[in-house]
Amino acid sequence: MEPRDLDPAGLRAFVRRDWNATADLDLLARAAQPTEVKLWIAEALYDAARATVAGWPSTADRRADLEHRIAVRRLLDHAPHVRPR
Question: Nearest to residue 62, comparing CAs of 73, 42, 75, 46?
């Protein structure tokens, strides 16, 4: 395909398309999945990461994750009036 064969209007439509539409649909589909499926996917992703990066998660990674979780818990404890939508 040569550049002269490209349709300018088609290119503009392509650039202006809603690039988040499929991600939004994917998010809704994943949210509707049963908990067992979500856990299976999380475990598969964890196993894939461990197979890809030797030694992951490191002790430092695990410590940082725990500290982050504690910080989030503290924030949630200070916002008891906030409810999910």
Answer: 46
Q: Which amino acid is at 60?
A: A
49: which 2 tokens?
């990461």
Predicted TM-score (pTM) of the model is 0.49
The answer to whether 10 touches 2, Cβ cutoff 8 Å, is no
Asked if residues 72 and 79 have their Cβ atoms less than 8 Å apart, the reply is no
Domain extents in the chain: 7-77
**How far apart are alpha carbons 73 and 27 in whole angstroms?**
24
The amino acid present at 81, given as its one-letter code, is H
Write out the chain's pLDDT in tens, 85 residues: 576 778 889 888 888 988 888 888 888 888 899 999 999 999 999 999 999 998 999 999 999 999 999 999 999 898 878 777 6
